[in-house]
Structures are given as structure tokens and as C-alpha cells.
Amino acid sequence: MTGVPEFEFRTSSACKYDNNNKLCVEVATNVPGRVAVRNSATGQTVEFTAVEWADFLPGAKLGEFDVTA
Fold first, then answer.
1. Residue 44 and residue 2: Cα distance in Å, rounded?
2. Which of 9, 16, 65, 68 is deepest in the core (most CB within 10 A)?
3. Which residue intervals define the domain DUF397 in the entry (predicted)?
4. Cβ(7)–Cβ(30) under 8 Å?
């Protein structure tokens, strides 16, 4: 019987992570068909299907989800 693989998270190279300001997003794509996104400050994780993630990325790259103050 094979166990469920654990997510292996990585942080974006654009992240300016330091111990005083943990405002990074971490992504894991190592589990087939699933993508997990984790908040580095809280550890909260959200999971997506690979299709949902592929649909999300183009909009994110174009700034579609940017929040302005």
C-alpha cells in the first residue's frame, strides 16, 4: 500500500522573506493533479486541482487579481 505523498513547498524567488516580515506565498506542485498554496506567516494551506491552477495562472500573471489600496 502506498502512502499519500506530502506537499513539498517552494517560495518564489521574488519573495523578500525575512524573519521579521514573513509575507511570502509558498506553492507545492509535486503531487500529481493537485497544487497547494501556503501562507508562510500562518501556515494556512489552500488546495487546487491542476486544472484550476492552470486556469488561474494567466490571470495572475496579467495582474487580474492585484489588490489596490
1. 26
2. 9
3. 9-61
4. yes
State the cell numbers at 28. 507545492
**What is the mean pLDDT, run by run of 10 residues, along the chain of 69 residues?**
77 72 84 93 92 94 84
Domain span including residue 33: 23-61
55 phi/psi in degrees, rounded to 5: -70, -35
H or E element, residue 56 = helix 50-61
- For residue 14 the three cell numbers come to 521574488
> Model pTM?
0.75
DSSP 41-52: TT--EEEEEHHH
Total of domains in the chain: 1
**How many angstroms separate the Cα of 53 from the Cα of each of 3, 22, 26?**
24, 24, 14
